[in-house]
Structures are given as structure tokens and as C-alpha cells.
Amino acid sequence: MSRHEPKIYLLPNMMTAGNLFCGFAAVLKIIEAALLNSDGAPVAHCYHTALAFILGACVFDVLDGRVARLGGHESPFGREFDSLADVVSFGLAPALLVYQIVLKDFHKTGWVIAFIYLLCGTLRLARFNCIAAEPKDPEETKEHAKEFIGFPIPAAAGLIASLTLFMLWLEEGERTIGRWKFALPALLLFLSFMMFSHVRYPSFKGLNWRTQRSLPRFLLIIVVLAFAGLQYEWMPALLFVTFLLYGFIRPLLSRPLRAEIEDEKEEVAEDVSE
After folding, report:
1. Which pTM value belongs to this model?
2. Is 46:30 a contact under the CB 8 Å cutoff?
3. C-alpha angle with apex 244: 65 to 95, nearest 5 degrees?
4. Is 205 within the bounds of a domain?
5. The domain that contains 29 carries what CATH number?
6. Residue 134 and residue 37: Cα distance in Å, rounded?
7. How far is CA 134 from its chain centroid?
8. CA–CA dist 199, 243 (Å, integer)
9. Is residue 5 situated within a structural domain?
10. Which of 50, 154, 184, 203, by CA, is between 20 and 30 Å from 194?
11. Whose CA is closest to 55, among 164, 150, 148, 128?
12. What is the pLDDT along the chain (274 residues), one digit of tens a residue?
């Protein structure tokens, strides 16, 4: 193998491939919805499947970083591959979804709004990779691992998908989403701004397979996850909205409380993947 050949670690990149597949499948289901809608057929089932794939991509995105850190297999190739997959799953798929649901009614203005989200998400990922590739002193790397500056694009896509799922639930039995769909273009533009804002969000990168929690905290996490699975129509939307709002109230919290919420440790492992 050439010394210039990038190292490709199997498990982390399989998770990233899963992320990419989910984004690709979501795009296919959205295109299928567009074709069915032109024939006057019901399309809610296509939207449900596309939303499930976008949320599935969020799960794979979390897992690839955790698997890489667990095995100490972080690499420049993995960072670039992850970002390329994110463009499809968290940039293109949500933009196309909102375009198909509501923005197509606005013609070229709808194109612009959808493209702004895709552009901002892609630029954010490019900026992140440039910052991650710059040499840093240990303290700067440690701070970089603890938090994101701006709303992460996987969370933005998860928020769009989960809120759309909630709207479909509210309009159960209908062929299309009701009047609530007109909130989606504003949300798309707001999240485009938030991805480049200076609002700081915890990365939770210190939370890994070796993180220890008390029994009550462990049980609480299990209950929340189980409840989110049972009430998937609205609970994921609540969690993503809570995370969005947390960035605004975070500076008002005391440092001990913030550290407890974010599982912040002094020995946070260095990590440079979003």
C-alpha cells in the first residue's frame, strides 16, 4: 500500500455508509411521493418512509463517531466520508422533502429557499472540516471536542424530519399535510441561519461506551428512549426542539449544572469529527 493511501477503518465507515444509504433511500422515497402525487394517489406512506430513513441516518451518524472513538480509529478519510454522506442525508434529503411538501407551490422562490438550506449545510460541513484539519494545541482541541459552534446539521435534519412526522400525525388520514406545512419554509431558513450562528451546543463527545451513570440516571435514560420509541409520532420532535432551545438557555445555567447535563469531564477525549 502506498504511504499516501488513506487508512479506511471498516466499522466506523460501515456506519457512515449506513448513513449514506439512509439518505439515498429517503431521496428515492421523496421522488416516489412526487410521482404518486402527480397522479393524485396518496403519498403519506412515502413521506413516513422517507422520514424514517432521515432519522435512521441520524442514528448512524451518532454511531460512526462513537465506534471510531471507541477503537481509536479516527482518520481524515473518515471525516471527509462522513461529511459527504451528511450532505446527502442531512442536506439534500430534508431540502427535497420540504420542497416536495410545500415549496413547490412557490415555484422559483421555493427553489431558492430549499437551496439556501442545502448550501448553508454544505458550507458548514466544509468549514468544520477545515477547522478540524488545522493544527491545534491540546487545550484548543479539548474545547473543540466539547461543543459545536452553531446548530449541527444532523440535528437540523432531525428537527425537520421529526416535526414533519408530527404534522403527518396531526393530519392522519389526509392525503397531504395541512396548513402547518407552511411553517416548514420558515423553519428551513431559520435552521440555515442557526448552522452559521455563534450559539454553542454541547457535542456530547465525552459520552461513550465507557461512560458511567448512577442507577437512577440510567433508568431515566432508558425510560425516555423507550417512551420516544413508543410515541415516535411526537416525542422525537420534542427532543430535537428541546436541544435547539437548549443552546439559547445554556449560557444562563451555572457551570456545575451545565457540566452535569452535558456529562462534561475534564478528561474529554480529543475528537475532531462532527
Report:
1. 0.84
2. yes
3. 75
4. yes
5. 1.20.120.1760
6. 47
7. 24
8. 12
9. no
10. 50
11. 164
12. 555 666 666 788 899 999 999 999 999 999 999 998 777 677 888 999 999 999 999 999 988 877 766 656 667 888 889 999 999 999 999 999 999 999 998 889 999 999 999 999 999 999 888 877 776 655 555 555 678 889 999 999 999 999 999 988 887 655 567 778 899 999 999 999 999 899 999 887 655 555 555 567 767 778 888 888 888 888 999 999 999 999 999 999 888 888 777 765 443 333 434 5
CA–CA gap between residue 90 and residue 77 (Å, rounded): 19
Q: Which residues pair with 202 in a beta bridge?
A: 147
Q: How far is the CA of 218 from the CAs of 94, 227, 240, in angstroms?
A: 33, 14, 20
In total, how many domains does the chain have?
1
Q: Could you tell me which residues are beta bridge partners of residue 200? A: 149
CA distance 99 to 184: 9
Give the structural domain span for 240: 10-262
